[in-house]
Amino acid sequence: MTPEEEALHLGVLDQTFPAWRFTVLDGGWWATKVDPPTEKEKALGIHAQIRRDHPHALVSAIAEQQGIISAQRGIFV
């Protein structure tokens, strides 16, 4: 992936998931929650940071995390 493609993906991730911050480091795509998970969220499987090898895999992991949070709050997105 070119630097321009990485920047495009990072921009889309930032706009789509404002509760997370994104970076690419040593070939890994990282997402870090802006607000660290509470103890209750940790017990449900919410992570403060996620790493995947590709942005599409990272989107999938974040969607799963958001599903857990939404279900816990009784909100379905």
How would you classify the quaternary structure? single chain
Task: Give unreliable regions as ranges.
Answer: none
Based on CA atoms alone, the radius of gyration comes out at: 13 Å
Strand content: 15-25%
Order the strands across the largest sheet as they lie in space. 1-2-3
Alpha carbon gap, first and last residue: 31 Å
Provide the residue-averaged pLDDT. Answer: 91
Number of extended strands? 3
- Helix count from the secondary structure assignment: 3
**What does the overall shape look like?**
elongated
Order of SSEs: HEEHEH
What's the helical proportion of residues? 40-55%
> What structural class do helix, strand and pairing data support?
alpha+beta
Largest sheet: 3 strands, antiparallel
Mind explaining what this structure looks like?
The chain is of the alpha+beta class and 77 residues long. The protein has three helices and three strands, in the order αββαβα. β1 and β2 form a beta hairpin. The chain is elongated. It starts with a helix and ends with a helix. 12% of the residues are buried.
